[in-house]
What we know:
The chain has strands at about 1-5, 15-20, 25-30, 35-40, 50-55, 55-60, 65-70, 85-90, 95-100. By secondary structure, the chain is an all-beta fold. The protein has a single domain, classed as 3-layer Sandwich (Rieske Iron-sulfur Protein). The chain has a 6-stranded antiparallel β-sheet, with no helix packed on it. A 3-stranded antiparallel β-sheet has the order 5-6-7, with no helix packed on it.
Amino acid sequence: MIPVCRFENLPEGESVRIETTPPIAVFRTEDGELYAIDDTCTHQDASLSEGWLEGCLVECPLHAASFDLRTGQPTCLPARRPVRTHRVSVDDGMIYVHVAAEEGTAA
Ligand code: FES
């Protein structure tokens, strides 16, 4: 379980990257939901935390592949492989990521 930041420090519509290996991107959607996925796009080496968030989708900043934050699945080309998803929890105002044990599975 990895601490991310205080809940109030991650505004709606924003994301934060945590420097795990591999890095993880944590998103707070406009609806206030929290999601965590592997930060690196499965197409090439781009940081999804720098992408554009729309609903539960994040668009890669490099070639505009889109990933569903709930499943990690790409919703359009050029990405074909999913990113890992990770469970997120909030305890006493602190956001935590529970890193998934294996590729493609949530913790
Ligand atoms: S690097 Fe993400 S779509 Fe190409």
